[in-house]
Amino acid sequence: MAAQIFRTLTAKPLVASALLRRTTTTSAQYVASRARDPTFEKLMEKYKILLKAIAIQDLILASTSDPPSVSLDFLHRLSQKLHLNRGPAAFLRKYPHIFHIFHNPEKLQPFCSLTPAALQVIRQESEAIEDSLPLVVTRLVKLLSMSMTKKLPLRALFKVWRELGLPDDFEDSVIAKNFDLFSLADGNEPNTHVLRLNSCEVPKDCLVPAVEKWRVEECCKEDCSVDRTELKYRFKHVFPPGMRLTKNFKAKVKEWQSLPYIGPYEEMGLVEKKRSKSGMMRVEKRAVGIVHEFLSLTVEKMVEVEKISHFRKWFGIELNIRDLFLDHPGMFYLSTKGKRHTVFLREAYERGCLVEPNPVYEARRKLLYLVALGCRGLDRGGSELKIVESDGNRVKEVKND
Fold first, then answer.
1. pTM of the predicted model, to two decimals?
2. Residues 6 or more apart from 206 whose CB is under 8 A from it?
3. Which residues touch 175 (CB under 8 Å, ≥6 apart)?
4. How far is CA 137 from CA 141, 159, 178, in A?
5. Separation of alpha carbons 253 and 388, rounded Å
6. By CB count within 10 A, which of 66, 89, 103, 298 is most buried?
7. ∠ CA(394), CA(395), CA(397), 5° rounding?
């Protein structure tokens, strides 16, 4: 009996050793060991504050009072949910360009409203979203086309409506008005709905992955250092500054770059069994292509990992999405600032700004600038910013007289 147990334990030494190697590094250790990029880390330092400001801003805008306002007592009850460790009053006073605290004589308690500068930024963002509705329709068509069933749960879209630049009422303003493209159906669970793509004949020029644009540009360059036949399956890589690239790592990246794969808008068909090495690599590269395209469809080329995970099953991704981002540091950057994991599309950014900004991004960037200003920019009379105009990566401030 003892000999049989010994033979059983020693029958597959390679599998046992592989399991041991896999468990030596935990998920948290893997995240912590990633190459840091100071540019993205500084950007996320501001963004984690911006997200708190946006959460309070949404509560104020949802108020029925005129002008919209909420009491500090109400915000105090939500302090833990809003991650306001020192209370709402301390947070609001740090950003006087966005929030205005005043005493309500009727209710005999302090209230908070939005400043004219913040309201103007909100109007600009709303106008930019309204003007970009045709692009929003295209984004939804592309997302549904990446789904294996051409369907997506509505609750998953609600998670990323801001990232996709959707209007607040996108069910009415986008889905209902484009009934030839979209329709809502009941989901498998009670009180759930699924968004379905009606038109099966979507124009092929609409379903072109964003990476194809880069491949065409690279192919047209006179000084292209890569064989043009290899560009068909390549992705752009921009590694973090200071990251040590070993010969072994470079060889693996080169092998992965030349590997054929099924694009995000192509039918899966018959895929090699994942038991083989080539089959696993093809499945992984398809998954990378899908999340790369997903990030390309977002307004700011960034999204929380938890939010994109809601689409994993519908896109046919059987791998851990966070591990995909960590395994490809030349394409994605994962930040853990603000107690959340946020992934950026590296190639879309340069010096902390989008290489190709859009009107919605520019409007939101102005609110980030107001956060970065803090208490600066206010004169002794306490006049507030009235107009915020974008000039490249800078903001022009015009005060009330």
1. 0.85
2. 138, 141, 142
3. 140, 182, 184, 195
4. 6, 17, 8
5. 44
6. 298
7. 150
